[in-house]
Amino acid sequence: MNAAYDRLKSRFARIATLGEAQAMLHWDASAMMPPGGAAARGEQLATLAGLAHDLLTVPAVAEDLADAEAAGEWDAPNLDLMRRVHLRASALPTALVEAMARANAACETIWREAKATADFPLVRPALGEVVRLQREMAEALSGLTGLSPYDSLMEGFQRGVTAAEVEPVFSAYEAFLADALPQAEAIQARRPAAVPLPGPFPVAAQKALCQRMSERVGLDYAHARLDESLHPFCGGTPNDVRITTFYAADDVAKALMGVLHETGHAQYERGLPAAWARQPVGEAAGMAAHESQSLIIEMQACRSDPFLAFLGDELHRTFGGDAAPYGTANLAAHWRHVSRGFIRVDADELTYPAHVILRFRLERALIGGDLTVADLPEAWNAGLRGLLGISPPDDARGCLQDIHWHDGAFGYFPSYTLGAMAAAQLMRAARRDVPGLDAALALGDMRPLMGWLREKVHGQGARLGFQDLLRFATGKPLDPADFTDHLRARYLAA
Amino acid sequence: MNAAYDRLKSRFARIATLGEAQAMLHWDASAMMPPGGAAARGEQLATLAGLAHDLLTVPAVAEDLADAEAAGEWDAPNLDLMRRVHLRASALPTALVEAMARANAACETIWREAKATADFPLVRPALGEVVRLQREMAEALSGLTGLSPYDSLMEGFQRGVTAAEVEPVFSAYEAFLADALPQAEAIQARRPAAVPLPGPFPVAAQKALCQRMSERVGLDYAHARLDESLHPFCGGTPNDVRITTFYAADDVAKALMGVLHETGHAQYERGLPAAWARQPVGEAAGMAAHESQSLIIEMQACRSDPFLAFLGDELHRTFGGDAAPYGTANLAAHWRHVSRGFIRVDADELTYPAHVILRFRLERALIGGDLTVADLPEAWNAGLRGLLGISPPDDARGCLQDIHWHDGAFGYFPSYTLGAMAAAQLMRAARRDVPGLDAALALGDMRPLMGWLREKVHGQGARLGFQDLLRFATGKPLDPADFTDHLRARYLAA
Predict the structure, then answer these.
(1) Predicted-assembly ipTM surpassing the 0.85 threshold
(2) CB neighbours of residue B411 within 10 Å
C-alpha cells in the first residue's frame, strides 16, 4: 500500500458517494416523483453521472493507478477492480458513449410504441443502430480486456464467468428440460387443481404482512423502506435500502413474493462488508451473485414446503376465512405451478431458464455478427419452439417483450439463470453446513440461513468473481446439477 | 453577451442542477429516510456541496467573470449575481469554512441537550465559538462587499435591504405594538370566547382537505407532493416541489394552516421564470421575499374573513357535526387569537414581530461586539419584557428556543418580519390592481391573487433585490404602514 493507492481510495469513495446520491434519486423517480419532475430529474442524474465520469477519468487517476501498490486479500482485488472500472470508463471514445446514450434513449422510446402495437419493423432501424454501437463498444473493450467481445459486455454486469463456460451449462439444461417439463406437467395434472385463496386481500393488510415477512428475512427497517412502484425493485444504498412492490387486491402472492425477492437483494446490500464501504471491493459481486440472493430467499427458502407451512398460517391469521386453502399443498399448487408461457417475467422456476437461454444465444449471435436484427423475430420464434414447443402469437409476446436490448443492455440476461443455479448450489451447501436449517424455516426463522449467507456471500463483497465466490462458499465452481436436483425434488417427485 | 458569459451560464446551470439533487436529498432526509441512513446521507450531501464549491471556485470562473459581458434587464443582474455568489464562495479561507462547519455542528448537538435541560451555560462555550467565527466571516465578507459586517451576513439570506433600513422600521413597530397590543387584548376580551370545533379530525380526511385547499391556491400536483415530517417545510425544486406538514388528530388548524403557508412558498418556486431556470437570476429573490409569499397566502388571504367563510363550509362538509362552530367569527376567534407568549413559532401575527425584533437587535449586537454570549440570557429576558411585558421562566423558553444561532445562522431572523410586512404591502397593491379579489376569496378562488403574484413577484425571479421588487410590484419601497393598517383593521376594529 502506498500514497497513490490511498489517493485512489479517497477518490473512489467520493465517486461511490456520488453513486449513492444517484441511487436515491433513481428510487425517488420510480417511487415518489410526480410526473412533472421527470425532465429535471434526467438532468440531475446526467449531471451526477458526468461528474462521476470526470472524477474517474482525469489524468491523475491513470498516473496513480500506474504507481499504486496494494497487497492482501482485500486491498489487492480492490486495486484490481479500480483498474477494471477505470479501463472500462476511459477505454471508450466520448463520441461513442454519447452516440450510445442517444441511440439507447431513442430506441427505448420507439420500443414502447412498437411493443404496444406489436410492430417489430417500427423499432428495427433503431434497434439496428443500438446493436451496431454495442458491437463497436464490445470490440473496443475486447481489445483492452483480452476477453471476447460478448464477454466484455457480460463483464459489465457479471465478472468472473465467460460465455464459453455458460454455453455448455445452458445446453445441458436444455436437454434436462426436454424430459423434465413433460414429466412435471404430467405429475401436476394428476394432482388436485388449486383451490382459490379466499381473499379479499386489503392492501393495508398486505403491506403490513409484507413488511413483517421481510423482517423475518432479517431486513432492519431502521435502514430500509418498503414503498410502491409500477415495477418492483431494490434500490437505495447499503445503509438505506429501498424496496418497492405492487399490490393487487385480488392476488396476495404478487406483492408478497415480490417483497421476499427484493428483500433477498436488500439483505445482500445490507450485509456487504462495512469496512470496505464505498470501495469497489466492498460492492456486490455482480448481477448473477445478486440474483442468487433474491432467488435463494424467494425460490429456495420461501417457496419451500417448510416455509409455506409457516406462511399459510400467517396468511390465514391475516386474512381470515376458510383455513383449508392455506394448506401447504394448495399454496404449492398456486405458487409452484409449472406452465409453458411466452412471457419471461411470468415464468415459473422450471421454464424460466428456457427464456434466458433463448436470449443468451440470440444476443451472443447479434454481437458476434451471426444474426441480423431483421432476422431476430424469426430466430426468436424458432428458438422458443425448440425450447418450450410454443410459438408467440405476435412479437409483443416475442422479441419485443423485454426492455433490455432496446435500452442497450447486452450481456445481462445470463445473470438470471446463473443466479438461479447459484441459489440452488448455495442452498445445498447451507443445508450441509447448518443443521436444522429447514426446521427453522418451518418456524419462519431465517436466521440460520441468513447467518450463513452473511459469512459466505454478503460479507465477501466483490473480493471474488462469480466462480471464485461459489468455490469459496460451496467448495466448487458453478455446478448446475444442484439446480436440476432441486427441480427434480420439487417438480418430478410424484 | 460574450463567450465568457456563455461559459458561466453553463457552469452555473450545472451548479444549480447539483443544488437540485441536494434539495431532493434534503427533502428525503426529512420526509422519507429511515434513521439508519443519516450518516451516509451526511456524506452524500457533503460530497455534493464540495463538488459544487469546486465548480464555483476553480480559477477558470474568476477569469471568465473578469471577461464576461452581459446587458439587459435579465442578463445584467444574472452576471451581477454570479459575481456575488462567486465572491462569497471564494472570499473565505478554506480553514475558516471548515472551522465554521465543525463549530456549528458541535454547537447544534450541544444545544439540543441544553434546550432539553434549560441549561444555557452548557452551550455557552460552543455558542461563543460560533459567534467568534461568524464575526470573522462577517469581517472578511465586509471587506469585499463594502457592506457592514452584519449586513454581509444578512445578504446571504436577503439581498437588497440593510440593517440601517430595518432598524427604524422595527422601532416604529415597537411603538405601534405598545398601544396596539393592550387594545387588541381588550377588544378580544369583550368578544365571545371561541367555541371548540367539534372534531374528531381523522388524518386521512385532513390530508385530502389539505391537498384540496393547496390545489385551490393553485398548486399543481403533477409537479408537487404533500408528505409528512416533524417540522413542516417546502423543499424540492421548481418543477417538483415537496411540501410537508404534521397532522394532529385533535387540531385541524395546525396541518391546514401549515399546508397553506408552505403552498405559498411552493407557488413562488413554481412561478419562477422558466426561461431563467438554473441561473442565479431565475431563483427566488431571497428569504424575506419567500416569506412574503407564504404569509400573503396564509395570513393575508386564508385567514381573511372572506376566505374563512369559504373554509368554514369546507370544514363542515369534510368533518360534519354542528355547523355553528364553523362560522367565520368563531374560526377567527380560534385562528386570529392574540396572546403574549414566549415562543416565536407559536406567536400570532401581531406579536410575532416582537420576537423577531428582539432577535435582530441581539444578533446585531453579538456580531458588532456590543454583546457577549455570557450576557445573552439577561439581555434576552430584558428585551422580551420591554417588547411584550413578559419574561420567560427559563432559557429553554428564552434564548435557547431557536436552532438558528446555534447552527450558525445570523442575519436570517429579520426575514420573517420583513416578509410579513411585504405580504401586507403586496396584498394592498393586489386589491388595488385586481377588482373583485375579495369576492373571489369568498368563493375560495385564489386565481385573481395568484395571477397578480405570478406577474409581479414570482415571474421576476431574483432580477430585483428586496426593496426594488417591492417598488416594482407596489410602486414604493417597504412601507410598514401597510402592515400596521392591516393589523388595525383585523385586530383593533371593535
Answers:
(1) yes
(2) 25
Q: What is the pLDDT of residues B146-200, one digit of tens each?
A: 999 999 999 999 999 999 999 999 999 999 999 999 999 999 999 999 999 988 9
DSSP secondary structure, B322-389, as one string: -SGGGSHHHHHHHHT-----S-GGG--TTTHHHHHHHHHHHHHHHHHTSS-GGGHHHHHHHHHHHHHS
Cell of B253: 388548524
The verdict on a CB contact (< 8 Å) between B44 and A24 is yes
B262 an active-site residue? yes
Q: Is any Cβ of chain A less than 8 angstroms from the Cβ of B37? A: yes
Give A172-201 pLDDT, tens digit per residue: 999 999 999 999 999 999 999 999 998 899
CA distance A57 to A52: 9
Contacts with B52 from chain A: Cβ below 8 Å: none
Task: Report the relative pairing of strands A234-237 and B234-237 from DSSP bridges.
Answer: unpaired
Q: Give B4's Cβ-side CA count (13 Å radius).
A: 14
Torsion of CA A92, A93, A94, A100, to 10 degrees: -60
Residues of chain B with Cβ-Cβ distance to A238 below 8 Å are: 40
Give the distance from residue A53's alpha carbon to the nearest chain B alpha carbon, in angstroms: 13
Residue A241, beta-bridge partner list: A224, A236
C-alpha cell at B244: 410537508
Burial class (CB in 10 A: 0-12, 13-18, 19+), A234: buried
The number of CA neighbours under 13 Å toward the Cβ of A373 is 18
Nearest to A28 among B17, B28, B39 (CB): B28
**What's the whole-number mean pLDDT along residues B323-343?**
96
Domains, chain A: 3-155 (no CATH), 160-494 (1.10.1370.30)
Measured between CB atoms, which of B28, B47, B220 is closest to A24? B28
Q: How far apart are CA B198 and CA B250, in angstroms?
A: 9
- The amino acid occupying position B295 is L
Beta strands in B16-143 (DSSP E): none
How many Å lie between the alpha carbon of B17 and the closest alpha carbon of chain A? 6
Q: Which of A71, A171, A77 is nearest to A468 (CA)?
A: A77
